[in-house]
Amino acid sequence: MVVLHSGAMQMRADMVDGVLAGTKAQHRAALLAARRDVPDAVRAAESQALSEHLGEFVAPEHTVCAYLPVGTEPGSPQLVDRLRELCARVLLPVARFAADGEPLALLWGAYVPDTLVTARFGLLEPAEPWLPASAVGEADLVLVPALAVDRRGVRLGRGGGFYDRSLPLCRPSTMLIAVVRDAELIDELPSEPHDVRMTHVLTPKHGLFALANTA
Fold first, then answer.
1. Residue 70 contacts residue 144 (beta carbons within 8 Å)
2. Per-residue pLDDT band at 4 (split at 50, 70, 90)
3. pLDDT given at position 214
4. Are 154 and 194 in contact (CB under 8 A)?
5. Which of 89, 90, 79, 91 is nearest to 55 (CA)?
6. Under 8 Å CB-to-CB from 109, ≥6 apart: which residues?
7. Are strands 141-145 and 124-125 parallel, antiparallel or unpaired?
8. Is the dihedral of CA 166, 172, 173, 179 positive or negative?
């Protein structure tokens, strides 16, 4: 039997993390390239379809944590407007960094049309006052941006780390919904023990459906 000392064990863990990081980076590059190739007309049709599906599962009493799609992300600002018509409250994320540059758990602000302000990287965010990171625990549904999700609920994001820190604050009953194109629902993605798995996926063609969510 081979006994690994702590230094060797750490080296092995670092090697595994490096392989996972490389694999995830390769997935991200391929998925982002594929999104850039989507024609504008297709993108618009898919955004409309996503908005139309919201009425199938969003209820008037719900609090929904959502986000404003940017760039090639599926959806559109109209999706957030549609949410506001359907539910009691829509909260949007506010991203901030610690003094050492590490991402913090997201803050949240109520979505009020025409009051968004420009933030870092030219992104739009809700105007103050903001709610603490724990406000995500009040949500019935959380729409989560993703580059891809697999059938076990493993999500691939952009690697910023904000949602990794925020989603553990959700209630166990909260629906965690990855929003992706149909081609971005795949069989298996690389996963890590700390990953928070999605419970559902929302796609333009198939709407909302549950994922296996098996650890």
1. no
2. very low
3. 57
4. no
5. 79
6. 91, 92, 94, 125, 126, 127, 128, 129, 130, 131
7. unpaired
8. positive
Residue 135, φ and ψ in degrees, nearest 5: -60, -25
Confidence band for 85, pLDDT divided at 50, 70 and 90? very high
Give the mean pLDDT of 140-157.
Answer: 95
Which tokens hold the place of 22? Answer: 């490389």
Q: By 3-state DSSP, what share of the chain in percent is helix, strand and coil, each rounded to 5?
A: 35, 20, 45
Topology of domain 6-210, CATH: Rossmann fold (3.40.50)
* Contact of 198 with 175, CB cutoff 8 Å: no
Q: How far apart are CA 131 and CA 119, in angstroms?
A: 17
Side-chain-side CA neighbours of 174 within 13 Å: the count stands at 26
- Closest C-alpha to 203, from 166, 178, 174, 173: 178
Reported as a pLDDT band with limits 50, 70 and 90, residue 17 is very low
pLDDT over 90 (residue 2): no
Q: What gap in Å lies between CA 159 and CA 70, rounded to an integer? A: 16
If DSSP codes are grouped into helix, strand and coil, which group holds residue 156?
A: strand
What integer pLDDT is reported at residue 158 of this predicted model? 83
